[in-house]
Design goal:
With 319 residues, the chain is mainly alpha-helical. The protein folds into 2 domains: 203 residues, no CATH class; 84 residues. Helix content is 63%, strand content 4%. The protein has a 4-stranded parallel β-sheet with strand order 3-2-1-4. α1 links the parallel β1 and β2. α4 runs antiparallel to α5. It is globular. The protein starts with a strand and ends with a helix.
């Protein structure tokens, strides 16, 4: 079972429900640590929506979204002083987000200087500017919080729990392992499902016989690829390249398939009729066998196509 963690503060808007549903193409179950805050704001504050709340609550009722009491989590299981520092900052009862960003900025600069003494001034300034540019982004704070709770949940539940919000690189803090970053890039390429698509279809998609192999192949590729010695920009480039190569391979395969059908209609079918007329029964099935061989060859091409490991994502984009 593949599980992710979501911060429901990122899904306050009614339109965000479609984005949340898309996560179930990839994940079997989601966890959240702030459902009751979400419930309070949707039901009792201006701008809240009972209809939107009911949709999220339905996910909870069907055990697709599990509510976790963050106060019951043992944070001491996270054996990393840097992460403990950020946990302390984010746990403070501080409503002024700009102050939190300032604290985060100072902490990150201090951690960066302590952990990378040989870094150039240009690198330090680059990281510092990156944090400054994101300081006023509410989504950034939510992403950090989601990542941290993903780490805490993984330690407490003793299983891999992936943060689901995409977030720009923040290498100096080492918030996540490489596999999590790869996972986020792949999820970012999953299209938002149309509202007319039932949730049950989204949930069952990866378990359908035609998609099951692609999904397993994707997970196996993620495990291998996460061990490659690549930085984050190289990971993004490689994934985008593989996706594009697989799209082109499938386009070419589709053209070949249409050509096979056209050949059957224009050439093979008249040949069969002619053999029937001449009672050449021994040769009657030769065209069928040739067409079958051509389709098997086409299927083998698809299996061997570069980027086939990401076919699960490409097929979703075609839906």
């Amino acid at each position: 079972m593949r599980s992710g963690v979501i911060d429901l503060e990122a899904y306050y808007a009614k339109t965000s429900y479609s984005s949340l549903r898309a996560l179930f193409y990839f994940y079997d179950k989601l966890y959240t640590c702030n459902f009751y805050e979400f419930e309070r704001d949707q039901l009792h504050r201006e701008g809240g929506s009972l209809k939107h709340y009911d949709k999220i609550k339905l996910l909870v009722d069907h055990e697709l979204l599990e509510v976790i009491d963050r106060n019951a989590l043992d944070k001491s299981l996270v054996k990393d002083d840097r992460l403990q520092l950020f946990l302390k900052i984010l746990d403070e009862k501080e409503s002024d987000y700009s102050k939190k960003y300032n604290i985060l900025r100072e902490a990150s600069s201090r951690l960066y200087n302590n952990s990378r003494e040989n870094a150039s001034i240009e690198e330090i300034v680059s990281v510092d500017n990156h944090v400054t540019n994101l300081r006023n982004s509410h989504r950034y704070l939510i992403s950090v919080r989601e990542r941290l709770y993903g780490i805490i949940l993984s330690a407490n539940l003793e299983q891999e729990i992936y943060p689901t919000l995409s977030m720009d690189s923040f290498d100096c803090l080492d918030f996540t392992e490489k596999k999590t970053f790869i996972c986020n890039i792949l999820v970012r390429n999953i299209p938002i499902p149309d509202e007319s698509i039932p949730l049950i279809d989204i949930i069952q998609y990866k378990n359908e016989e035609v998609n099951k192999l692609h999904y397993k192949r994707l997970l196996a590729w993620m495990n291998r690829f996460s061990k490659e010695d690549l930085n984050e920009s190289e990971i993004v480039e490689e994934i985008e390249s593989l996706l594009e190569e697989n799209r082109r391979a499938l386009t070419l395969a589709g053209m070949k398939y249409r050509l096979i059908n056209m050949e059957f209609a224009l050439k093979i079918l008249p040949n069969i009729i002619e053999k029937l007329a001449k009672l050449k029964f021994s040769e009657l099935f030769e065209p069928y066998i040739k067409m079958r061989q051509a389709k098997i060859s086409l299927f083998e091409d698809e299996v061997k196509a570069k980027g086939n490991e990401l076919a699960f994502i490409v097929n979703l984009q075609k839906k």
